[in-house]
Design goal:
globular, 18 helices, 5-stranded mixed sheet, 411 residues
Length: 411
């Protein structure tokens, strides 16, 4: 999607209406190897039948000698329908899902592995491929990635005598925020809402401190949360971040009142519409260099079918969708960075503004990495709860993270 999907935690799947919808949506007889229609489900409902994305699906179908029947769903809806269809033995032939969902579907036994379906993932960047891996097995091919960086207002930084090139670590960033405030302007806005969006935005600082999701109460984790709480106390960030989504945070930045905003590649089109000049820099790690930011983006996977004879054609479709030339077109359409280094280089050469984003994606990591798999949602909820408690002043960063670690361990 054009922004990472943060509603991917599973809703109850035992809902009759959804079961009926899932069954009817798969009515193209995916069980019959002789059926020429191959079903593709994706999380891109924003793309109509005359879009470049649908045209690519049709071309890939023609190349494979089949007709493609495509349906675009909201991400949460898609996850539920995929699980229900698998229970009914009526899965689509190709399923494109938000990367954290892969581990859930894999654990449910609904996806084939790349060893099973002979998909070649050797060219894919290992840090992006990791989001689709569980227990040493790979369950799909990344179609692209988005991630986070810092947008900045060039006019405000110039007025505050801040050179963005000097911002390389937390100390230099905080110094820049001090200068901006001294110049009478606002510092930085971000999203710290009590949802997956809040965790998503906190993770670059968490990982940039050297913290690990298996130890939420580490000193490194506390230093990251202390950074954010100190920014609020010192007036460098507004109290509104506690309720900000990534959209409302962007709207604050778009007013022209803030020097910095943490946001993603999906805002690039909106950035071109700003009433001021902007730039981007990587989110710095505590000690310097780009921090690992979490990856958004989807994986193209092949669900388990009753008839294994369909896998060969499904493999052709996936290979076509994720080929280097098609990735360039698709990822440009989705405002994604490609999962293949050579294509990333082509993107940056075609649009120098993407250079920072390519660097950020190369340093990024999957939220379900480190073999967390389906444990991640529980950890993430504990983490965003801690961030909320600390930023609202209910608990100190250490107290909040200690409670988070205890909660994550019992869920």
């Amino acid at each position: 999607m054009t922004r990472p999907s943060h509603k991917w935690r599973l809703a109850a799947v035992a809902v009759t209406a959804l079961a009926v919808a899932a069954g009817s949506a798969c009515s193209s007889s995916a069980d019959d190897p002789g059926d020429a229609a191959y079903v593709v489900w994706d999380p891109y409902p924003q793309f109509a039948d005359d879009s470049q994305w649908v045209a690519l699906l049709d071309r890939c179908g023609t190349s494979a000698g089949v007709t493609v029947e495509r349906t675009g769903y909201d991400t949460t809806d898609l996850t539920n329908k995929a699980l229900l269809a698998a229970q009914q033995g009526n899965s689509p032939d190709v399923l494109i899902v938000d990367n954290p969902v892969i581990s859930t579907l894999a654990e449910a036994g609904t996806l084939t592995t790349t060893d099973d379906n002979k998909l070649d993932v050797s060219a894919m960047a290992p840090n992006l491929l990791g989001a689709g891996q569980s227990e040493g097995k790979t369950y799909g091919v990344p179609i692209g990635a988005n991630t986070l960086a810092l947008y900045y207002n060039k006019d405000l930084l110039t007025a505050a005598s801040v050179d963005p090139a000097t911002i390389t670590d937390w100390t230099s960033l905080t110094t820049a925020l001090t200068k901006v405030k001294t110049a009478g302007k606002k510092g930085i806005t971000f999203s710290a809402i009590g949802t997956e969006e809040g965790s998503f935005q906190f993770l670059p600082w968490f990982w940039g401190a050297g913290a690990q999701l298996t130890s939420l109460d580490s000193p490194q984790a506390a230093s990251a949360l202390t950074l954010w709480t100190d920014w609020l106390k010192q007036g460098y960030a507004p109290n509104s971040v506690i309720n900000n989504t990534q959209t409302t945070s962007w709207q604050e930045f778009a007013t022209g009142d803030y020097a910095f905003a943490e946001n993603g590649t999906w805002q690039l089109a909106n950035a071109e519409k700003l009433g001021f000049s902007y730039g981007t820099i990587a989110i710095p790690a505590s000690a310097g260099g780009p921090a690992p930011a979490p990856t958004g983006g989807e994986f193209v996977s092949i669900p388990v079918q009753k008839s294994t004879e369909r896998y060969a054609t499904s493999q052709k479709l996936v290979t076509c969708l994720t080929s280097a030339d098609n990735l360039l077109t698709t990822d440009t359409t989705l405002s994604y960075v490609a999962p293949v280094t050579a294509v990333q280089d082509r993107q940056a050469a075609a649009d120098p503004k993407l250079t920072v984003w390519v660097q950020a994606v190369r340093a990024a990591k999957g939220r379900t990495g480190d073999n967390l798999g389906t444990k991640y949602p529980k950890i993430s909820e504990a983490l965003w709860t801690a961030v909320q408690a600390a930023l609202s002043g209910q608990k100190s960063p250490r107290e909040a993270l200690s409670a988070a670690q205890a909660a994550a361990a019992t869920r």
